[in-house]
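Structure ticket #2291
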Amino acid sequence: MSYMFIKHKVKDYSAWKTAFDEFIDTRRASGEKGFQIMHPEDDSNNLHLLFEWDNLDNARAFMANPILKETMEKAGVVEPPHVSFFEEHDRGTI
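Resolution: structure written out below.
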């Protein structure tokens, strides 16, 4: 499985989440398969996002899309995102 991790801060989580949800069709068409939204317990505007993608080439292309930058600005992202790409090597449950 392919993953993309993004860390960034937003002005207002609720406003950001609305824009995030409205962008779902573009995300899905780009190859996103699922997501998790996390934040430190004392700062709901400091987001840590984990996305599952069909492949890393599509994840990278999505991040390079100028529409994404415009959407992030409108959604209230207040700092450049820190982005990392990963391939899953192992998984387990205990």
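Closing remark: The domain at 2-87 is CATH 3.30.70.100 (Alpha-Beta Plaits).
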